[in-house]
Amino acid sequence: MKARVTANAAYAVADIDKRLYGSFLEHLGRAVYTGIYEPGHPQADAEGMRKDVIELVRALDTPICRYPGGNFVSAYNWEDGIGPKENRPRRLDLAWRTTEPNLVGIHEFADWAEKAGTEMMLAVNLGSRGLDEARAFVEYVNHPSGSYWSDLRAKNGRAQPWNCRLWCLGNEMDGPWQVGHKSAGEYGHLANETAKALRGLDPTVELVVCGSSHSNMPTYPQWEATVLEATYEQVDYISLHMYFENYEKNTAEYLALPAKLDRYIGTVAGIIDYVKAKTRSKRDVKISFDEWNVWYHQRKRDAERMRGWDWPEAPRLLEDIYNFEDVLQVGCIINTFIRRSDIVRIACIAQLVNVIAPIMTDPGGSAWRQTIYWPFMLASKHGRGTALQLAVEVPTYDAAAADKVLWLDITGVHNSNTGTLTFFAINRHGSETIEADVALERFAAKSIEHTIIRHDDLEACNTKDAPDNVSPVKGNGAALSGKGMTLSLPPHSYSMVRVT
Ligand code: AHR
User: Fold this and answer.
1) CATH number assigned to the domain comprising residue 200
2) Mean pLDDT over the full length of the chain
3) ipTM, 2 decimals?
4) For the segment 21-71, what is each residue's pLDDT rounded down to a tens digit?
5) Hey, is 291 helix, strand or coil?
6) 339, exposed or middle or buried, with CB in 10 Å at 0-12, 13-18, 19+?
7) Distance of CA 153 from the midpoint of ligand 1 (Å)
8) What is the number of structural domains in the chain?
9) Which of 71, 168, 173 to mutate to test the pocket of ligand 1 (most atoms within 8 A of CB)?
10) Are residues 133 and 174 located together in one domain of the fold?
11) Which domain holds residue 227?
């Protein structure tokens, strides 16, 4: 199959915010306990944090990590996680029907984030709690000293404030499953009042208000309109979430789902414009896509298991094992964010360790990279700079999610600091190689490098015994040509091509 692509270094979508490669860690299953924290593990540091996991997170170069939830945050008392560990209460977590020992709280997470080279994106509980507890939390984390909460922080061992910039006003408050679920009107009012208080306390914070949990919610898209009308002057981002499934095991349909993601982003961008016009505002609100990933491999089994269990501590939960097909999907999802990087400024892969995650651990044993680690890492490391507006001509197919889905999903990012053009390309076709002629305009190319991820078996996984089964290798399908380059992209493949 032939394709023609034009990349002009002057045709830009936007300068990508590095927080497009954010991540998420929830008190859920083994994300925290035996994920990042496992005192007694041979790799544990003095604080009980696993160094092998820190190393894998550092290599991902994820600039922000959202914490502590997720559904968990909607019944969480942040004060349970401060002070001497022996005095911290064990609590029943209503979101996942587990027992939370509170051995990791804000101090431990902040220290871990620093070691892992990431900044905190914190969420306040607007489910079971409200404005007052939220403002106490922000005061504890960000106020320098001389107040009840900031002095308590110093007494608990941290004199300097952490100065966390990014705060989520609750989580998925449109979802009936959420503890303290609210109507759009109720939530909009509470979020606005909380935002005013938090800004009063610290005018430098950036605030994220809840949009829809996914675009199939019955309240979508009216939820966004109502919530934004109530909060537009006080918030900086509206949060969206989406998870991808392939229960039917139909690869072409599965890989067409990012078209639905693209529509979701476009619709919410339109609602933001509508509310901006309606409120006669000069401010710009952007999208924080702070939960996204593939989530279906264990989902139904987990729901069944949860119904039967008796408040276990750190059980195996949402431990999806990803395959090679998911590499293609994650590549297409990230490409969608890159193409929409003018409006999607923040995105967080959900999640980071053990729970629907790129990194897995064995309690007492090793840590390894799942298949999806690789497309995320390659984009996070090399997808920084200016997203380009590419012209792409390639045959298409019709799918349930959308018509005219391109067989080739490709994005280009220009990094003017390093003088590099990086392309991320996924061949969605299962039997045809895509031969692409790529014109490079306003760019003098001298050298080219091809990295490819491919496997004959779409179901191939990485396991602790075969951790490198699906991983990137040097490719030979990219060459410089007269006015640009040629690409030969094998069926069902993920490629990164770097031109300098
Ligand atoms: O990431 C898993 C869960 O998915 C989160 O807790 C919740 O916000 C979403 O529904």
Assistant:
1) 3.20.20.80
2) 98
3) 0.99
4) 999 999 999 999 999 999 999 999 999 999 999 999 999 999 999 999 999
5) strand
6) buried
7) 29
8) 2
9) 71
10) yes
11) 17-382
